[in-house]
Amino acid sequence: MNGNDEEQKPSSEETATEAGKDATPEQPAVARPARSRNTVAWLALLLSFVAVAAAAYFAIDDWRQRRAAAHSVESIADLDSRLASSGESVENLRSTIARLTDDDARMSEKLASLEQQFADRKQTLDSLLPRLGNLESDVSALQGASAGARTSWLVAEAEHYLRIANAELQLASDPDLATLALKTADDRLAQLGDPAMIDVRQAIADELAALDAMEKPDVEGVTLTLASLSRVVETLPLKAVRADKTEGGAKPEPDAGALARAWASVKRAASGLIKVSKPGEGAIPLLSPDAEYFLRTNLELKLEVARLALLRGEQAVFRQSLDDATTWLGEYFESGNTQVKSAIDTIAELRDGVKVSAPPDISESLRLLRQHRAASEPAR
Predict the structure, then answer these.
(1) What pLDDT does 377 receive?
(2) How buried is residue 278: exposed, middle or buried, by Cβ count under 10 Å (0-12/13-18/19+)?
(3) 200 closest CA partner among 332, 335, 370, 329
């Protein structure tokens, strides 16, 4: 049995040795799974942070886009309301222009009729002048002829020319013909040599001085200039639409880590939350074709009102219409464009250079002459 025990001892030692050998490599196998679990946990935490940052970026970016869209809708709605009011003013201006055009047409017809009558009378008068000269010579040569016939004739001629002067100035707005008629009437009164006519001739002299001092603008030239500006309005460029740009932060480098890229995305999203704009930097939104048509038509109507005011001698309306046209050019059109600058300069030159004044009253001489005739006829 001792032999067996001895034989068993080595076998137990070998068993222990083998057990020790088997236990030694198992210790690092237990440590490796713990280290890999820590790495996965950190990676999951990093991915969760990246997902949260991306979700926050997309949420902020969506809120910012909705806010910009709401601001654009409010701007367009405000412009629509302004265009609607402009449309109403355009309609009012159209009705005013139509009424003024009708009045102008009726006035033109009356002026044409008066000019025709004046031409006929002038032709008749020109044909009668030689006959009157001969008749006057014959009457003066007749024995016993009264000097009162010649006086009555010259007074009637003077009154006739005074009526022509008033008609040419008040109806035809022609101060040159009015001046010529006044001078002819004064010449007839000078032939009388009657001291009683001194007050009439003094009134004629005052009226001639008033006509000489009267502003005589180049109505035809200014009218052609305004018509040319109305045609140019169709080609003037409107103000360009400004596109809002969001200034983001610096983009991360391509080789940056996931955490750095996520942080850069969050900074870019937060940089667009607050934006400060200077007053006057806003540009008009994109105009529809109808809105652009009303805008240009309104400007053309303002120039047309200025033209009619010039023809009617209304200085205040003339200047106000040109001021409104200048305001519209500066507010809605590209002020840096050469054509727009030229139109603004031309309107300013017309406004400051053309002075529309009402014609003076030249009816005093006619009133005094009629008063003199009424007083002298009963005595005769």
Answers:
(1) 67
(2) exposed
(3) 370
Helical pair 315-332 and 338-353, crossing angle rounded to 10 deg = 160
Are 145 and 139 within 8 A, CB to CB?
yes
> Cα 183 vs. chain centroid, distance in angstroms?
46
C-beta neighbour count of 119 within 10 angstroms: 10
Backbone angles phi, psi at 333, to 5 degrees: -110, 160
Sign of CA dihedral 130, 132, 138, 140: negative
Q: Which residue has the tokens 């391509």?
A: 254
182 within 8 A of 208, measured Cβ to Cβ: yes
pLDDT value for 4 = 45
- Three-state SS at 333: strand
The residues spanned by each domain of the chain are 100-214+360-379, 217-239+287-358
Write down the pLDDT at residue 206: 93
Structure confidence at residue 143 (pLDDT): 43
Among 365, 81, 323, CA closest to 202: 365
Distance between CA atoms of residues 149 and 158, nearest Å = 14
Nearest to 309 by CA among 357, 368, 370, 277: 357
Q: How far apart are CA 164 and CA 177, in angstroms?
A: 9
257-305 pLDDT, tens per residue? 555 665 565 555 444 444 444 444 444 555 567 778 888 888 889 888 8
Q: Looking at residue 146, what is its pLDDT?
A: 56
- pLDDT < 50 regions, the chain: 1-31, 143-145, 241-250, 269-283, 380
Each residue of 176-195: pLDDT tens digit? 888 999 999 999 999 988 88
Residue 17 vs residues 22, 23, 27, 57: alpha-carbon distances, Å: 9, 10, 17, 63
Give the CATH architecture of domain 100-214+360-379.
Answer: Up-down Bundle (1.20)
CA atoms within 13 A on the CB side of 92: 6
Where b means 16+ CB within 10 Å and e means fewer, 27-64 reads: eeeeeeeeeeeeeeeeeeeeeeebeebeeebeebeeeb
Prediction pTM value: 0.40
